Amino acid sequence: MAIRMPRIIKKSSTSGDVPKGYFAVYVGEKQMKRYVIPVSFLNQPLFQDLLSQAEEEFSFDHPMGGLTIPCCENVFIDLTSRLRK
Prior knowledge:
alpha+beta, 4-stranded mixed beta sheet, 4 strands, 31% helix, globular, disordered N terminus, Small auxin up regulated protein, SAUR_fam
């Protein structure tokens, strides 16, 4: 069974493919996957909660070289789907 990815977020494979108004985050607990999401999510309380968790766990200094969200991919996709509505 395939998981349908919302059109507002997408898996990203290279660092040069982030359009204006979006930013890349790494999501996962063990295996990190890179997603490109709208900057507007930064204003959303649910997303800010995820950022607080990232700060507690990684202090925004993570070896991936980017913002890392320490949650499972399914939780991230569910949350971003709700923010998109």
